[in-house]
Write a structure and sequence with these properties.
two-stranded antiparallel sheet, mainly alpha, 4% strand, 7 helices
Length: 226
């Protein structure tokens, strides 16, 4: 059972890396002049780092080597910070893609959330309120839920902006935002209840692939002059 679980974690992360790596390379030139693609590439990089961090936490936890211990701790911190970054980058993508102004109030709120996340991870160095890695085991702390709330805030705020914009301009209904949200929500819910199932980052990679396909469809059905 444990051997199968071990391979499932590695397999999920490898599939995710292969998927986003292919997407990244296939759209590298487009990112030079496309703001949407630049943001999606930032999301891809975040996913790739998280995939590697996930493997480090799972396979290296429990080592007595101080360098490995630091690497595992940094990887765990990167996973939590990555959750917040994905939410932020997705909300930013929605605003850029739909030409929604990034107000000063929203910008300050977004930055404050990111700052609080960093502060919590710094505190976690001395007091494991977010996560801990001891006796070869990775365990979530009580502040784990705060990072989920932060990520959920970004996503819900982007959904609010999306709905508001669609009501104002019906032509934007061609952009299927649910293609991103459904796999992400399912992945987060599954891993929230089953910490040993490493599916969150793979589900986000699938969501990015879906969004990139939707963007290509949008170009086909949209008159670039209007």
């Amino acid at each position: 059972m444990y051997m199968n679980l071990s391979f499932s974690v590695l397999t999920a992360n490898i599939i995710s890396i292969l998927l986003i790596g292919t997407l990244y390379l296939a759209n590298r030139q487009k990112a030079e002049y496309d703001r949407d693609m630049r943001l999606l590439q930032q999301i891809m990089v975040t996913i790739g780092i998280a995939n590697i961090s996930d493997c480090c936490v799972y396979y290296l936890a429990g080592s007595s080597n101080i360098v490995i211990k630091v690497l595992v701790f940094l990887s765990g911190s990167g996973l939590f910070l990555g959750n917040v970054m994905i939410g932020y980058l997705w909300a930013k993508f929605i605003m850029v893609h739909m030409n929604i102004p990034f107000s000063d109030i929203r910008r300050n709120i977004y930055r404050t959330i990111g700052l609080v996340a960093i502060v919590l991870l710094v505190i976690n160095i001395f007091y494991p309120l977010v996560f801990s890695v001891s006796d070869g085991r990775y365990q979530r702390g009580f502040a784990y839920i705060i990072f989920l709330i932060f990520a959920a805030f970004y996503i819900l705020d982007s959904l609010f902006l999306y709905v508001k914009r669609v009501k104002k301009n019906g032509s934007l209904k061609l952009f299927p935002v649910h293609i991103f949200l459904i796999p992400v929500i399912l992945g987060v819910v599954i891993q929230a209840f089953f910490v040993e199932i490493a599916i969150t980052w793979t589900s986000i990679a699938i969501s990015v692939a879906g969004i990139m396909t939707a963007l290509k469809n949008e170009i086909i059905f949209t008159d670039c002059l209007t």
